[in-house]
Model the fold of this input.
Amino acid sequence: MRPLDRVHSALEEAAAAVAEEMERLLPDGDGLEARIFEAMYYAIMAGGKRLRPFLVLTSAQLFNVSRESALRAAAAVEMVHTYSLVHDDLPAMDDDDLRRGKPTCHVKYGEATAILVGDALLTLAFEVLSDPLTHADPEVRCELVQSLANAAGAAGMVGGQMMDLEAEKLALDIGAITRLQRLKTGALIAYSCEAGAILGKAHEHARHALKAYAHDLGLAFQITDDLLDTTGNEKDMGKKVGKDAGAGKATFVSILGVERARAQAKVLAEQAAGHLDMFEHKADLLRDIARFVVERRN
Amino acid sequence: MRPLDRVHSALEEAAAAVAEEMERLLPDGDGLEARIFEAMYYAIMAGGKRLRPFLVLTSAQLFNVSRESALRAAAAVEMVHTYSLVHDDLPAMDDDDLRRGKPTCHVKYGEATAILVGDALLTLAFEVLSDPLTHADPEVRCELVQSLANAAGAAGMVGGQMMDLEAEKLALDIGAITRLQRLKTGALIAYSCEAGAILGKAHEHARHALKAYAHDLGLAFQITDDLLDTTGNEKDMGKKVGKDAGAGKATFVSILGVERARAQAKVLAEQAAGHLDMFEHKADLLRDIARFVVERRN
Done:
């Protein structure tokens, strides 16, 4: 199999396993509040590449973590990612009607329910991680919770979203955009790689290597996102394109131009792969995914 | 000092200590995202009775928990309570402009920021609980995280909020309203009492006693809330009153009438106090707070 085909089939396999795990973990019932269970399911099952859980599973494999532990941590990360999309799509935020080719959660269930769906998914992620089923060692579970909260909160993803809202009023330079994206998307991607190391009680230097990899991967991912927003089409993307340019927002592409942005993403992907030398051939799939991230079309 | 005066001064003392602790725990900085730090501070420092952190501190005292541990857990509970108010006040939810006599978070900072403030406070609560500073034993920290997530999520508070939204379309009976309130406000109040027992590694029967106390206290609290919404005035309450009746929502008062609701709240408060026999005089303050909860005017 060629490397990119191998990535595709590994992504698909991981996506199916994580979807199954999330289905097991999502709440269910027929009380008066059943609407939220249905809406959580809708948001989670809307699909997507499931890149973050894939990174959890793949980094966990480096340290021989049990499949159940890795799947639960992967599901938790995807819940946090999904909550962030549900809230980000709200009318008061990005006001998106379409996500992965389907009506967004608030379009389907109304704004109030969508707000609650995000809240419930975020909360569920921490409930899953702190559960003894995720890992026998409570120290490991606490570290998973603490690192995820740090990556997802005001010092990470939510802080990045706040910067993004503020950025609409300002002309950002490349340094500010890099920091914005490091918080907005980079922190959760970095956590996804770190989670495998936490679960495997990996040595500090292994953990640093994975974080350095994830840092470059996250930026490469975001630059490619900006490129796709400029050059992609709505059918491939399953969502509106050209929104950032339309809103006059500074992006990697608006500052660097298409060609330099594309070159930069490729350099970052190579650099990301380079951080994994210590894992030798065990990290081939992580290296391949770095290349996949900049060559994807949606 | 008379019991109610004692409660008042204990509440004030706890409120000041928890506010100070939260101020220490809230993020700060002058980056592009500084607006969210400011808005989190605004939401947290808007005040309130701080009943939930008071319950954490007071139940922790039963088991000789260190002051630092109790304060951190108390701060985490109040962060979750505050996040739920910020989201609940949003235009798509209850659409409230006034909270504790001040503009609500979205009125002051806009809807997008208010959504992010809620998200960040919820996330921060879990970061605080999982931090080794909260308790030396990671098993205790995991249990704090897991129980809070359970109380706050779709099986608890968020589920109750979903029921509340659905209830606007339905004529609920007393059983349904009791379940709704047990989830919407009862679960977090119960957790507040349980947190002290978790921190103190209390025996199962002590924990059950506190949960039974909290269950009755939570209902008494909610019935009194409904009474104040009917009979209180906006000045004392610091928010709009009569909203539920105006919206045609079934409440304890609309079903039981003012007199029976008042009597029921009193019975529940006495019943709550009765669950604490095993703690003898050590639980006097918890008994007093049960009486305070049904006699308060805001």
Q: What stands out?
A: Chain A has one domain: 3-295.
